[in-house]
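Supplementary Text 2. Reproducibility record for the structural model of the 443-residue chain.

All settings were left at their defaults, and a single model was retained for analysis rather than an ensemble. We include the record here because the model underlies the residue-level annotations in Supplementary Table 4.
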Amino acid sequence: MLVLADDLTGANATAVRFARRGMRTLVTGGPPRPCPSAPDVLVLDLATRHLPGVQAARRVVAGASVFPDAPLVAKRVDSTLRGNPGAETAALLHVLDARPGPPVRALVVPAHPEAGRTTEGGIHHVHGVPIADSEVARDPFSPVKSSCVIAAFDAIDRTIAHIPLDVVRGGAAGLARALSDPAAHVLVCDAVTDADVEALAVAAASCALGGEPRWLPVDPGPFGAALATALGTVPTGCPVLGVAGSLSRLTREQLAETERRLGARWLDVGDEPDPVRVAADLVALARTGPPLAGIRTRPPDRIDPLIAARLPVLLGEAVKRALTARPFAGVYATGGDIAGAVCTALGADGLAVETEVQPLVVAGRLVGGPHDGLPFAAKGGLVGDADAAVACALHLRMSSTRPGGLPTAPGPVFNPTPSTATPGIRPSGSSLRSPRRPGEPPE
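Retained model, structure tokens:
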């Protein structure tokens, strides 16, 4: 996948969204030099944020030529719509239209809920304030004059339509129908939460997998990463192994969120599971490709203290057997007894705690034993908000890749650089420099 970014900070922020989903991601400031491993996602910083629109468009056209056969190309735009989002998107649409395949349509999702950027009624906000009323309106180089997202893309000479929030949240079928409208070449979508972004990605993928259109995601990172995942365009590595023994209502809600937002799949087991059978079923489930494959207990008709005491040991043995049979990105355990039993079954001396994903939700790596260094996240059954399990799964997937998002095993040589520098892009090996300011001589 190729992502064309407008500045280095944005390129890095976007790359994190892909890395969190287990994709090997490389950020570069020009035609990339040869490196020992091939990334899944190349994020190319074109430094166009403060350029005049014509020059910015020219750089986008040149950047798109770096990987002309990329199955998915995305346009990274600023989360507050500074710069040249319209001119750059128009240029990229023109390039992609010239390539063989179904018609290309831009899907504009400027929301970045985690950073407080949301879109509702076609108006873009920063922490609830319309962007034209916020500090970005006074940016010395790229002031934002309108909070209307469509206005930011008025340089595109194509039909633009708006997908309101009630349609985004109205169900997958209705949203897919709205996205399939052939009359609109550019769709500007409302989104307020991460769940809204995921819903848009799933619906867009269902349209594209049906034959057409080809989507050009235009966003600050979250939607592009979600769409790549939903399309299956980019491999997302090994799944996370989940194990849940808590019977609390909160835990059930958290696991349901992983199904809804990540496409996680869970095996429901009784209170006296056979570890051999459960492990075999879990490995088979993992082979179907979900980002998280897990075991969860069914609430019993009545609680037997003796059976309840044996359950963590049985689940721990099942996890051990599954990890022996195939690799997983990490282990997510909910329920204190369950987490302790899993660590014991895996022969770990302890957990090297690295971070708190949410209050009282810890993550780190196992220490000692045959699974030394395995990413591990644990929480109590009554801990965390509804997103806790999703946050842990995404954290574990990111932790399973080494720094930079590149694989630990050697890969093919990666060198798409042409023999001469691509026009409009910094030559390989050059240092990152500040972009030209408006009014400076053209390149």
